Give the backbone structure.
Amino acid sequence: MEKKNIDWENIGFGYMQTDKRYVANYKEGKWDDGALIDDANITMNECAGVLQYAQTVFEGMKAYTTEDGRIVTFRPDLNAARMVDSAKRLEMPVFPESRFIDAVVRTVKANAAYVPPYGSGATLYIRPYMFGINPVIGVKPADEYQFRVFTTPVGPYFKGGAKPITICVSDFDRAAPHGTGHIKAGLNYAMSLHAIMTAHANGFDENMYLDSATRTKVEETGGANFIFVTKNNKIVTPHSSTILPSITRRSIMYVAEHYLGLEVEERDVYLDEVKDFAECGLCGTAAVISPVGKVVDHGKEICFPSGMEKMGPVTQKLYDTLTGIQMGQIQAPEGWIKVIE
Ligand code: PLP
Ligand code: COI
C-alpha cells in the first residue's frame, strides 16, 4: 500500500482529513450495523442533544507503524471500556466494546495510507466519539445517538516535542468531587478552554489543576496525567477520583515496576511537596510523556533538577520503554498490542 505524500517529520497535532470514517447510529433502542463512509461532515437537527446540552463523549488512541512494518494499536480494550464508563455517566447507550475495537480496526485499515512510517515521529491519531443527535429541548438525554471514528495523522502534542515545558498552577478548577472529571466527556474540555487560553496568555504551556475541594493536591492537566520521579527514583502519580484514568499512565506505572524494577506509588500528591521531586512529566495518548521543567505557582517557581533542556534520565527511560513497546522494539506484556495489519 502506497503512503500519502505527507511531510511526516514536520506535522503538528492538528486535524488532517483522511479518506474514511466509521459511523453507527442508535435509534429505537438499538445500534445499526455501522459502515465506513466518505463524508467527513455531519448533518444534524439544530436542536440536537449534543449541540444544546453537550451530550458527547470521546476517546483518543493512536496507530503506530512498527519496525517490521506492521500497523498496530495500543490497548484498545481499555479505551473501549473507558468509553462505556463515559457513556453511562452521561446517560448514553453503550457501544459494545467488541464493536468499538472492530470499528477502530476497520477505520485504521481503511486509512492505512495515512499511518505515518516507522521512525518519522508521527502517528495516526484515532478519535472514537459518540453524541446525542435527535432534538432535545427539555434537559434530558437524547433518544438517538451516533458513534463515529475518524483518524488524523499527528506529530507531537507540545510544539517542542521532547523539550521540557513550563506549566502554571491554575486558579480554575477542572473537575468537582462527584462530577465528571473521571470520564472523557466533551464538557470537561469546553470548560478548560478559558483556563488554557489564560495560561497561554501568561506564557505557560499548560495548567496544573488542583483538587477543587481543598486546592492542596495535584490532579492533572487539561489533557494528561502527571508522573513524578522522587530523588531516589520512585515513580509517584496522583490518586484521585476526579482525574481521567489515563491508559498511558497505567501502562507507565506497569512498565516502571515490571520492566525497569522501579518502585511505584499512586497516592495523594500535595502541591507543597512538588518542589521535592527530581523529575515531572505529563502522560497521555497525545502527550506520550512530555517532560515538565518548571511549575509556576503564582510567581513562585519550582524548577526540577532535570532542567529545561532535556527529559530527566528516569522519564527518558520510561519514554523509551513505553514507545519501544508501542513501536514493537520491546516485547509487550500479553494483550497490549493489537495488530491491525
Ligand atoms: N487526562 C485527560 C484530561 C485527558 O484528556 C487524557 C487524554 O486522553 C489523559 C489524561 C490521558 O489519557 P490516556 O493516556 O488514556 O490517553
Ligand atoms: C488524548 O491524549 O488522546 C487526548 O484526548 C487529549 C486531548 C486533550 C488531545
Q: What stands out?
A: The pocket of 2-OXO-4-methylpentanoic acid (ligand 2) is lined by residues 60, 223, 284-286 (CB under 6 Å).
